[in-house]
Amino acid sequence: TRQWRLASRPTGEPTEENFELVTVDRPEPGPGEVLVRTLYLSVDPYMRGRMRDAESYAEPWGLDEPMQAGVVGEVVESNHDGFEPGDVATGNLLWADHAVAHGEELRQVDPDLAPVSTALGVLGMPGITAYFGMTDVADPDPGDTVVVSGAAGAVGSVAGQVASMAGARVVGVAGSDEKCDWLTEDLGFDAAVNYKTTDDLEAAFAETCPDGVDRYFDNVGGPVTDAVWGQLNRDARVAVCGQISQYNATEQPTGPRKLAQLIQTRATVRGFLVGDYQDRWGHALERLGGFIQAGDLRYEESVVEGLENAPDAFLGLFEGENIGKQLVQVGER
Ligand code: NDP
Fold it and tell me: Which residues cross the membrane (predicted)?
């Protein structure tokens, strides 16, 4: 069986050289453990932090050690009462064809409810992040203007639609016209800004948010965020979900450049982690599942085929190659 290992730690942009594909014996499940054959594995921006040798909320990956990932897979062997061969399960496993985990660390996926891949996207960690980040942290009122950056990604696309359902006017920020069209034509965003082709971002937000910005759900940081902060309204709230524009930075950026804006607006800026909501994940999944069934929540997945292409899929996140959730398909049911 094959697994990816971290071969070296990147400086700046990671490259293929940082990863090594090795062939190892298929692992044997111990007492209470389950052997899972990977169907889909998730590549996520936060993994960039795990390539670094620094303390963070996610532990660094060890050099020459297998790398973890959210996986949906088929149970091959089980020494745990909760699972039997043929079940579909999800959990934190490996960038690999097979992996073992304790049954307590896995969750059953019902293949009749939705395509199993959604357990890594809209009905998984990114969807839950969007749900709590929008309903609990940003928490818009009807009629508010909400800006979402990284809006065509896994988290942002769900966050924007959750804001729409709360009665907000939603403006998305994304890196291509195709993505912007998807947001406004398919997902019901009220407007979208292509930050890569817009010279004057401040002017673009002034135009698309004529009543100012009441809530900002930030996935990216950097120049996009500077420009949105310039339009914040009195008592605005900023939910800091991610800062992907900074993840490959080799120098500490000069810190938020628009702090004076907070005095003027009495705005609140709050970061959050999806893990803080662990005991309410079930609630979020029920709500998100209900929205999909009602036709109020749409989602997209970008699927790269083959475990051998997993690093490519990961690196593509920093180039904006994905629309919606980026997955790697490793096996079939
Ligand atoms: P996405 O699906 O949004 O993929 C990343 C996207 O980021 C790309 O498609 C690209 O889209 C955009 N991007 C890449 N580089 C830049 C840049 N320099 N400036 C602006 N945009 C850029 O990933 P996720 O939805 O999984 O994650 C989104 C954010 O949420 C990340 O920052 C992630 O770290 C964070 N996150 C936080 C969690 C938490 O608990 N706080 C949990 C999960 C995710 P484009 O074409 O638009 O540039």
Answer: none
DSSP string, 157-186: HHHHHHHHHTT-EEEEEESSHHHHHIIIII
**Which residue range forms the structural domain that includes residue 9?**
2-121+300-329
Contacts of 234 (CB under 8 A, 6+ apart): 265, 266
> What's the structural domain count of the chain?
2
Q: How many CB atoms are closer than 10 A to CB 255?
A: 6
pLDDT digits (tens, 9 = 90+) for 68-111: 999 999 999 999 999 999 999 999 999 999 999 999 999 999 99
- Cα(153) to ligand 1 centroid in Å equals 6
d(CA 280, CA 91): 17
Please check whether residues 20 and 116 belong to one and the same domain: yes
**Confidence label for 58 from pLDDT (cuts 50, 70 and 90):** confident
Asked if residue 204 and residue 151 are part of one domain, the reply reads: yes
Residue pLDDT, tens place only, 237-287: 999 999 999 999 998 777 677 888 899 999 999 999 999 999 999 999 999
Domain match, 138 and 91 both: no
Instruction: Say if residue 196 is in the same domain as residue 57.
Output: no
Given the CA of residue 245, which atom of ligand 1 is nearest to it? 18
Mean pLDDT of 197-219: 98
Task: Tell me, yes or no, whether 174 and 52 share the same domain.
Answer: no
Q: What is the pLDDT of residue 255?
A: 67
Complex ipTM value: 0.99
Q: What is the pTM of this model?
A: 0.98
Do residues 109 and 177 share a domain?
Answer: no
Give the Cα separation of 124 and 158 in Å (integer).
11
Please report, for the domain that includes residue 215, its CATH number: 3.40.50.720
